[in-house]
Please model this.
Amino acid sequence: MSDPNFVPVVPQEGWHVLHLFYKVEHGQWSILSPDEQRETKTSFTELVAEIRETENTQLLIFSMVSPKADIGFMLVTPDLQTANAFEKRLTLSLGPEVLTPVYSYFSMTEESEYTTSDAEYAGTLEKEQGLAPGSAEYEKAMGEFSARMAKYRKDKLYPVLPVWEVFCFYPMAKRRQPGQNWYGLSFEERKKLMGGHARVGRKYAGKILQLITGSTGLDDAEWGVTLFAHDTFQIKAIVYEMRFDPVTVHYGEFGEFYIGLSVPLDELFRRVQL
Ligand code: 76R
Model:
């Protein structure tokens, strides 16, 4: 049953995240003269540089796999006005109607509700490790814990995106139906279940980098899941393994999957034949 004392962590900070996927309309592109095409590619390159030079702003660019989309952008920036302005410019960046939006997702970075609190960690130190509060070892352990959590929180709210070869994006939500309503579970039950999920996830350390961004009230699903990997085997493996994790088994709802490859701009132009 839902916990009447539960106070959800309502996000008050974080960055805005736009995932933007487009198809290239070669018919429109071919109307441009070779000079216009060259100029367009130059101004596109300049726009990318301008976005990347904007404070705290990151733009990743992907050559998307399969005809679901050709070009993918992941834009992360603090201010929504900035995000919105860049998004409109990116859409027009290769000329009118050259890029047709096929899918987009709007979310925000957020921290987890289920992290270990100072009080919980203090309890573990006392009960499981027998450390007395106030002792030098206890204080040292608590200090290390706080530093670790501060870094963890910073990485979630203000992530530095990696440029790994493979990118995977899909929206997710937690199921809400009689007998299987995630939001009807108590906080303790959810936290315990998410603990199992995180244990599976941590096995992929160094192979998968995951960024969960929240989209309740912003887009159709509840989270955007962004995975970075060095190869598709790891993406397939983690998503398959998590299918058997109780949280996903009982409560996981998935949207469409998109796979992209990180490529430099000149290769992107060649790849999508611009
Ligand atoms: O945030 C953390 O890094 C620690 C714990 C953790 C949370 C709270 C965590 C760990 N995840 C969390 C939340 Mn996750 N994650 C997914 C998918 O669910 C599926 O079946 C597939 C989609 C993958 C592959 C994945 C990977 N996770 C979430 C949420 C929000 C849920 C909520 O708040 O109720 C979703 C939708 C979600 C989905 N997860 C990890 C991973 C990996 C690799 C980790 C370990 C990260 C690390 O320790 O570096």
